[in-house]
Design a protein that fits this description.
heterodimer; A: 4-stranded antiparallel sheet; 4 strands; disordered C terminus; B: alpha+beta; 4-stranded antiparallel sheet
Chain lengths: ~325, ~475
């Protein structure tokens, strides 16, 4: 039988090759811009422009062009009141006074602007700090509760705690991959983290755990069936048995995402791209992180599970405690 | 077989109901037009039923798809602080905005946008709000609740003060009195009454029916015990007034020392007690607000981008349906039918809850359709394994469902747990996106548990019963390719 878990070192190295640069990019971003990820006005606040034009001619598209030209990559544009009033509201990043004046001039070129009736003000974040903290705290709480749930669900298996911890590590792995890539995209293409990104991360978290549990479930079922076999062989068999399902499920999610990428509107491309990466790493981490980690733990290869004196001599036979 | 037929009937009925609900302008009513005072208020959609003909609707469900600000725009209200600049901090304004957010959520408006504007304004955007006035009133009400020392007043004096406007140490001046009468001061001292504690010290409040009287049950914050405990302990037998926005609601006699909570009595009916409890829960606004402007705002996303996403979704769904059919054959037909049931049930639930649909919510739903077949895939892969192991078709089907159930249950349950936690934390002001997302995801998973297991099993068993001979003779109809060994 093809041994998938045997090459586990490679998988860990591959993941490290994605995650470590990601963390470095985030740190670089933290040093240069003051935040780990490039935040949108949803999180950071910005400026709100109440614009009144004295004649028709302004459209969502040409207003957007002006704001993008002056550095607001994702302005939020709404028409105010009756369309005949030519009033618009734009939320963009905060810019200095000179740029504001330039924006006003550029808008004036589209249609004459009533400077008296127009107003620019600072606006706070829609997703305030409180909300961001709540979301982070929620993910932490979910981590603890889900670990507890997995331990409970796998109580019939020896070392149930390991299953919980490995599933959570796989999930954190996925969050780090997505965050790292998003941070890189922020530096390279100016992609901004908005409320949508929060939803994408939460979807990935759910998907990752679900995928891992399906794999673990097969191990749980196979342990009593193949009592004589070594743990590694049982785990390997379980992965190979469920890999069909993993791929088929992944494929279906991709069908929908590819359709939205190809045929959907412009505004959600980044969201879909992040989901795409997230679901990919979600499947990868179940097969290549969560399951190999179990084996590594069982064999005492993890730094904190092996007795120190055996560390160098017999890593492959050192039994884990418990 | 009998069970499957029964389930089939149940599924068909549920699906038909769901289709009916998800159609535009669903209406079911037996309330005669004469029951409505104003013909304009006669509903054009929703379920309105009056069984005993007394013009009071026993069932009133508004079946309308709520759409988010990005898709339909909504009501934009700019509120300005009604206090001199410098008398409050930026923190106060943020806190006020958070309280406004709580109130808006309590109105049942989902996915509102609330932002602090400059240093004296708050911008509130409410998607699809029809009753602008009620919304604004609820936002603005300051709801300053006070527990006021009425020590030494006699019964007659208390009776005179009930329902009256009074001055207190927490609110020593009143800028305007609606009926023009002067606010009363203490007849004993000639000074404003002493405020023992304000509603800010309340932890929770709820309207409760005690025998025949609606009362408000409240719990105190731990730090309030140090103030309220000693005071009530020292004044047992003395009256204490409960004052809302300067008006004496009631002045009960202190019966016992109160350290953790108590009840507020007064002349409440169900509605007023619930409103007051809501106001107490959502907290007094630290800064009074006035409405500066209110107007309709347009959608941030054009109709075109919605249409594009919907078209993309339909294409994606067709690909998924085709894949399941080609890859799993006869079981694929069952899965496709179950997936269609899943979509219709979801659309109906979105309207009934109601879930506010924004573009991200639509995308999230589309993705959930992609992952909804996961349950079916787990089951069908199991069935294939059983068939490969040499079982007969009639053994392999139930075995496949049985074995797959455990992993479907555990994997879905873990995500539902995550949703519950996200929903709980999503109650923080500004985090309603998180809560909304959690609700949509959890509903999708629960509906999916039903469609992927019960609906698929019913359809598959009936299909196999109908196609008994071809299926047993040609295993490829069940998705099996040759005698592949795994």
């Amino acid at each position: 039988m093809f041994s998938l878990v045997q090459k586990r070192r490679w998988y860990f190295i591959i993941s490290a090759c994605v995650i470590i640069p990601g963390i470095l990019v985030m740190l670089y971003s933290l040093v240069t811009t003051g935040s780990l990820l490039r935040l949108s006005i949803d999180f950071e606040g910005g400026a709100i422009y109440d614009l009144t034009f004295t004649a028709a001619g302004a459209t969502e598209a040409n207003i957007r062009d002006v704001f993008v030209r002056f550095g607001s990559d994702n302005p939020l544009i709404q028409q105010l009141g009756d369309p005949a009033q030519n009033r618009w509201s734009v939320r963009g990043t905060f810019v200095d006074e000179d740029t504001t004046a330039q924006i006003e001039d550029a808008l004036d070129a589209i249609a004459p602007i009533d400077r008296e009736a127009s107003r620019i003000e600072a606006v706070s974040a829609t997703v305030g700090q409180e909300a961001t903290q709540a979301a982070l705290f929620a993910v932490l709480a979910a981590t603890v509760v889900v670990t507890g749930f997995i331990v409970l669900a796998f109580r019939s298996v020896p070392n149930a705690v390991r299953y919980g911890i490995c599933a959570i590590i796989a999930m954190l792995h996925d969050v780090l991959v997505v965050a790292g890539i998003m941070s890189l995209a922020g530096l390279l293409f100016g992609w901004e983290v908005d409320a949508l990104f929060l939803s994408a991360v939460l979807t990935v978290v759910g998907f990752s755990i679900q995928d891992t549990i399906v794999m673990f479930d097969r191990i749980r079922e196979n342990i009593p069936k193949h009592l004589g076999e070594p743990y590694e062989a049982i785990v390997n068999r379980s992965v190979l048995e469920t890999i069909h399902r993993s791929l088929a499920t992944q494929l279906n999610a991709f069908f929908i995402m590819i359709a939205i990428l190809l045929f959907g509107g412009e505004s959600i491309r980044q969201f879909i791209a992040m989901l795409f990466i997230g679901l990919l790493t979600g499947t990868y981490s179940s097969i290549f992180i969560a399951v190999p980690l179990l084996v590594a733990w069982e064999k005492g290869e993890l730094p904190f599970t092996q007795p120190p004196q055996k560390a160098k001599t017999t890593p492959s036979t050192a039994a884990a405690e418990g | 077989m009998g069970t499957h037929i029964r389930w089939l009937i149940v599924i068909i009925l549920i699906t038909m109901f769901a289709i009916w609900v998800s159609l535009p302008n669903t209406i079911l009513t037996n309330v005669p037009a004469t029951c409505y005072e104003n013909p304009v208020t006669i509903p054009t959609q929703g379920i309105h039923l009056d069984f005993n003909g007394d013009c009071v609707q026993e069932v009133a469900v508004n079946v309308q798809q709520a759409l988010g600000l990005d898709l339909v725009g909504g009501l934009r209200v700019v509120l300005r602080a009604d206090a001199p600049g410098g008398s409050y901090t930026a923190q106060d304004l943020r806190e006020t905005a958070n309280n406004v957010g709580r109130r808006v959520n309590a109105l049942g408006v989902s996915e509102p946008a609330i932002q602090v504007l400059g240093n004296e304004r708050i911008l509130v955007e409410l998607p699809g709000v029809t009753d602008a006035q009620t919304a604004i009133d609820t936002i603005r009400q300051t709801a300053l609740l006070e527990f006021v020392n009425f020590r030494g007043l006699n019964f007659q004096q208390i009776q005179q003060l009930e329902g009256q406007r009074i001055l207190t140490t927490a609110r020593p001046t009143v800028t305007q009195s609606p009926d023009g009468t002067a606010a009363a001061v203490s007849p004993l001292t000639g000074q404003p009454f002493e405020t023992v504690m304000t509603g800010a010290m309340l932890q929770a409040a709820a309207a409760v029916l005690e025998q025949t009287q609606w009362v408000i049950q409240f719990e105190l914050k731990p730090e309030a015990a140090d103030i309220f405990g000693p005071y009530t302990g020292a004044n047992i037998g003395q009256p204490m007034a409960i004052v809302l926005d300067g008006v004496v609601l009631s002045a009960p006699t202190i019966q016992a020392q109160l350290t953790t909570g108590g009840i507020i009595t007064g002349d409440f009916d169900e509605e007023t007690s619930r409103t007051l409890a809501l106001q107490l829960r959502s907290g007094a606004l630290p800064i009074p607000l006035v409405v500066e402007t209110r107007e309709q705002v347009g959608a941030t996303l054009g109709q075109e981008s919605v249409n594009l996403s919907l078209r993309a979704g339909v294409i994606g769904i067709i690909v998924v349906l085709t894949f399941m059919l080609v890859y799993y054959r006869v079981p694929g037909i069952a899965a496709d039918l179950a997936l269609l049931v899943f979509i219709v049930l979801n659309l109906a639930v979105f309207k009934l809850i109601p879930v506010t649909l924004t573009l991200p919510a639509i995308i999230g739903f589309l993705i959930s359709i992609g992952t909804a077949v996961d349950g079916n895939i787990l089951i069908f892969e199991r069935i294939k394994e059983e068939l490969r192991a040499g079982r007969k078709v009639e053994e392999a089907l139930p075995a496949g469902f049985d074995r797959a159930w455990q992993s479907i249950r555990d994997s879905n349950l873990s995500t539902i747990i995550i949703c519950a936690i996200l929903f709980f934390f999503g109650q923080t002001p500004g985090a309603s996106i998180v809560a909304g997302f959690a609700v949509t995801l959890a509903l999708g998973l629960i509906i999916n548990l039903f469609t992927a297991v019960v609906v698929t099993r019913t359809f598959l068993n009936i299909l196999v019963a109908l196609l008994r001979q071809p299926v047993t003779e040609r295993k490829w109809l069940l998705g099996l390719q040759g005698a592949k060994h795994v």
